[in-house]
Amino acid sequence: MAAPRLNKAVLILGTVQLVESLAIALPISFFPNYVISLGASVASVGLFTSSFMMAYAILSPKMGRLVDEYGRKQIMMLGIFGDVVFGVLTGLVPDWRWLLVIRVINGAVSSGAMLASETLLIDLVTPQKRGEAAGFIMSMSMIGRNIGPVFGGAIQWFVLSRGYTELMSYRIPYFVDSALAAVALAVIYFYIKEPERSRRNNTGLEGEKKELPKIEWTQPLKVLFLNSFIAGIGVGFIIPIMVLFYTDKFNMDPVGIGTIISLSGFIGLLASYIAGRYSDKLGRKPLIAFGNYSSRLAGLILPFTASITQAGIVVSVRSLGFNISMPAFRALRADLVQPEVRGRMFGLFGTAFTAGSVIGPIIGTWIYDTYRFSVFNVLGLQVPGYGIPFFINGILGILSTTMIMLLVEEPKGEDVAPQFAEI
Question: What pLDDT is stored for residue 268 in this prediction?
Answer without folding.
Answer: 75
